[in-house]
């Protein structure tokens, strides 16, 4: 075996090993995150509603979601006769994919990142738009009117709210002069977190990601008092769990993206970078939960007019103002 | 022979909402014809919990029918229970002691508040806000607990007796009742903060599901739904019964006729109920709770031949009882006029043209109780 071959073999092994390791670490963490967030949601809703939430399984119900997951694993995967079988089975698997890719693109500290791209922000926003396809596939293939309605709502909602998200992120890009997320954080390290410079964009972004993750008060695709289960009405067992998995993963990932863009990402004293990023992301997630258990739900047309008539114009004005005020870098 | 060709336009479709649906408040089925998300036609289909209460009344003695009454409208069972008792008392000419009359007002008004509280929670749940439900249920629990201490039951009260009440209010009752009222009053500002001042809530309710006076008249709408259209029609005022004429209270109305008006009317009504209870607690006379020499549940009660109509204001509207007696131990015929039936029927005029989400809000705002519609 020549030296070149040995080097090549070593290189491929190394690349494969990092890939595998990264995937395992990210998947493992996201699984833990889902279990944790579901538990957190139940605790937060419990305390907001003057009760304790889960208390029985494990200390303060910490193992409740593990028990629930085991229960869901043991459940039969029902496939209704009238569904479009291929699409129906594919949808819960697909919904999870874009979020996973996005998760690997977010820089967790100054030193390491699983994947880096010079145009990371654009890739992330493009990828997170894919979720809606899976949601629509689920709604359409279920052959259920509630599910179709949920799917239709979801498509128009996510498309409408991607625009303010993108515009809000663009104002940050203008300030930082880069689409590389690490550069954006580094720019905040030199100055202040962009929340203080761009409060309007931060608010727009937060409203946008709340809508994008289908959380109340924008949870109309799965509005249980109107559409029963929305797009996942016909799903059961682990397939149903995968939708939940995707929703909570999405919350964390978009929360982390928000933290990166507006709260200075991994920056912070004393604690290591990843800890800061997660803290900030979970703080945003907590606010989302807080909103969910406080507000009623918007109506579908009100939701759309909020996006098109208020958020997008405001985001555009904000963008123009930022463009005029941003100092020209030589 | 080929199947008849459907004349339904191709751009509409039918959606069955219920009988198993989270927002139909019991086993109601709404047959919605939709174009996209907009309703073209609504057809409420009822009868899933029909138990033949009217027929049952013909087959048992007046006293034996007592437990049935609170099972018609399980949320204001006390009011229904007293309505039957008072109708029979009027038919048979049974005198009722003063204390029982006032005690009935107190219990009925507490029941009205608990019914409205439950409605607020369920209605906001329809709008997608889960949390107020828990808070109104906490308040309601205090009332339910209080009523349980008097009647022994939490929901399906059967405490009315011909000539009074089954059990006297104990000496400590006024104190406990006032404590419950204080708890309720302390909670209301929070409700106002979280709900009435909430932009999303206002957007979802203002101008939604407007019922016109003409529609009210056509379908026989009563109760808070009619008062939300600006008509101060309340049986307690227009055909006073029991001890109500003695107490000062207003009939709150709102002119708009929309979902928000119906919400506000019920909120204001609870304050009026509190007012009535406070006066009644002051005025509660001493004396027997049951007419002398009466067991209250005489099995062989034989009212004279005649027809008696008796109406009360339940939490949902005008509840009427028609009893036809032929002098036997059982009614020859009993007919119940339940408010939710008319309040639901008007939906087929109100809902078309709105969105699915509005339909849920409008249906929620009517405060229907299905067992009362089906009977």
Write structural notes for this entry.
The complex is a heterodimer of chains A (330) and B (375). Chain A has 330 residues and is mainly alpha-helical. Chain A folds into two domains: 74 residues; 246 residues, no CATH class. In chain A, helix 1 packs across helix 12. The longest helix of chain A has 46 residues. Chain A is globular and about 55 Å long. The N and C termini of chain A lie far apart (53 Å). In chain A, 44% of the residues are buried. Chain B is an alpha+beta fold and 375 residues long. Chain B has a single domain, classed as Cytochrome-c3 Hydrogenase, chain B. Helix content of chain B is 46%, strand content 12%. In chain B, the strands form three sheets. Chain B has a three-stranded antiparallel beta sheet. In chain B, strands 6-7-8 form a three-stranded antiparallel beta sheet. In chain B, strands 4-5 form a two-stranded antiparallel ribbon. In chain B, helix 3 packs antiparallel against helix 4. The longest helix of chain B has 29 residues. Chain B is globular and about 70 Å long. The two termini of chain B are 42 Å apart. The mean pLDDT of chain B is 84. Chains A and B meet through helix 7, helix 11 and helix 14 of A and helix 4, helix 5, helix 7 and helix 14 of B.
Tags for this model:
heterodimer, A: 330 residues, mainly alpha, 2 domains, B: 375 residues, alpha+beta, 15 helices, 8 strands, 12% strand, globular
Helix percentage of chain B:
40-55%
**Can you identify the CATH class of chain B?**
Mainly Alpha
CA-atom Rg of chain B in angstroms: 21 Å
Q: Provide the CATH superfamily of chain B.
A: Cytochrome-c3 Hydrogenase, chain B
Q: Unreliable segments of chain B (pLDDT under 50, ≥5 consecutive)?
A: none
Q: How much of the residues of chain B is beta strand, in percent?
A: 5-15%
Run of helices and strands of chain B: EEEHHHHHEEHHHHHHEEEHHHH
Number of domains of chain A: 2
| Count of runs of 4 or more consecutive helical residues of chain A | 14
Distance between the termini of chain A: 53 Å
Number of domains of chain B: 1
Sequence of secondary-structure elements of chain A: HHHHHHHHHHHHHH
Largest sheet of chain B: 3 strands, antiparallel
What is the residue-averaged pLDDT of chain B?
Answer: 84
- CATH architecture designation of chain B: Orthogonal Bundle
Low-pLDDT segments of chain A: none
Specify the helix fraction band of chain A.
over 70%
- Count the beta strands of chain B: 8
């Amino acid at each position: 075996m020549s030296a070149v071959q040995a080097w090549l073999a070593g290189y491929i092994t190394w690349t494969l090993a990092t890939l595998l390791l990264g995937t395992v670490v990210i998947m493992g963490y996201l699984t833990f995150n889902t279990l944790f967030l579901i538990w957190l949601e139940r605790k937060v809703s419990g305390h907001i509603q003057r009760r304790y939430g889960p208390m029985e399984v494990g200390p303060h119900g910490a193992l409740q979601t593990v028990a629930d997951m085991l229960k869901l694993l043991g459940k039969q995967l029902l496939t209704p006769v009238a569904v479009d079988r291929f699409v129906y089975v594919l949808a819960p698997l697909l919904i999870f994919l874009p979020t996973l890719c996005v998760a690997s693109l977010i820089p967790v500290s100054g030193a390491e990142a699983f994947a880096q791209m010079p145009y990371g922000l654009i890739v992330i926003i493009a990828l997170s738009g894919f979720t809606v396809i899976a949601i629509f596939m689920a709604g359409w293939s279920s052959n259920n009117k509630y599910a179709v309605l949920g799917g239709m709502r979801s498509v128009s909602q996510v498309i409408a709210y991607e625009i303010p998200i993108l515009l809000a992120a663009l104002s940050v890009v203008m300030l930082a002069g880069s689409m590389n997320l690490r550069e954006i954080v580094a720019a905040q390290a030199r100055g202040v977190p962009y929340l203080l410079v761009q409060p309007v964009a931060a608010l727009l972004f937060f409203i946008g990601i709340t809508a994008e993750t289908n959380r109340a008060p924008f949870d109309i695709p799965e509005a249980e008092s109107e559409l029963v289960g929305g797009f996942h009405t016909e799903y059961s067992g682990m397939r149903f769990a995968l939708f939940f998995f995707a929703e909570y993963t999405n919350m964390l990932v978009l929360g982390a993206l928000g933290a990166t863009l507006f709260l200075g990402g991994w920056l912070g004293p004393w604690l290591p970078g990843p800890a800061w990023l997660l803290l900030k992301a979970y703080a945003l997630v907590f606010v989302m939960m807080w909103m969910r258990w406080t507000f009623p739900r918007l109506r579908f047309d009100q939701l759309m007019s909020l996006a098109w008539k208020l958020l997008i114009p405001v985001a555009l004005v904000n963008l123009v103002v930022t463009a005029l005020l941003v100092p020209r870098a030589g | 022979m080929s199947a008849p060709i459907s004349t339904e336009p191709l751009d509409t479709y039918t959606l069955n909402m219920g009988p198993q649906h989270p927002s139909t408040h019991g086993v109601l089925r709404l047959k919605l014809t939709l174009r996209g998300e907009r309703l073209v036609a609504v057809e409420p289909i009822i009868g899933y919990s029909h138990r033949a209460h009217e027929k049952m009344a013909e087959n048992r003695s007046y006293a034996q029918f007592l437990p049935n009454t609170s099972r018609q409208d399980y949320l204001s069972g006390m009011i229904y229970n007293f309505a039957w008792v008072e109708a029979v008392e009027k038919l048979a000419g049974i005198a009722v002691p003063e204390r029982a009359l006032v005690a009935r007002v107190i219990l009925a008004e507490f029941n009205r508040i608990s019914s409205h509280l439950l409605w607020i929670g369920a209605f906001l749940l329809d709008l997608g806000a889960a949390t107020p439900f828990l808070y109104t249920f906490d308040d309601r629990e205090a009332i339910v607990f209080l009523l349980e201490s008097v009647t022994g039951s939490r929901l399906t009260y059967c405490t009315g007796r011909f000539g009074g009440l089954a059990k006297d209010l104990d000496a400590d009752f006024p104190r406990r009742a006032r404590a419950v009222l204080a708890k309720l009053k302390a909670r209301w500002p929070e409700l106002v903060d979280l709900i009435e001042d909430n932009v999303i809530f206002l957007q979802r309710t203002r101008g939604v599901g407007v019922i016109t006076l003409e529609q009210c008249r056509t379908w026989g709408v009563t109760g808070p739904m009619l008062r939300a259209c600006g008509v101060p029609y309340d049986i307690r005022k227009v055909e006073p019964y029991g001890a109500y004429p003695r107490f000062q209270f207003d009939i709150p109305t709102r002119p708009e006729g929309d979902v928000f008006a119906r919400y506000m009317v019920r909120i204001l009504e609870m304050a009026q109920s509190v007012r009535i209870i406070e006066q009644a607690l002051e005025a509660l006379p001493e004396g027997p709770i049951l007419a002398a020499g009466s067991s209250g549940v005489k099995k062989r009660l034989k009212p004279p031949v005649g027809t008696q109509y008796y109406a009360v204001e339940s939490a949902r509207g005008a509840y009427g009882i028609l009893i036809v007696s032929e002098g036997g131990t059982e009614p020859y015929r009993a007919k119940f006029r339940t408010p939710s039936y008319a309040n639901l029927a008007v939906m087929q005029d109100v809902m078309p043209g709105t969105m699915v989400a509005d339909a849920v809000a409008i249906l929620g705002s009517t405060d229907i109780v299905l067992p009362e519609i089906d009977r």
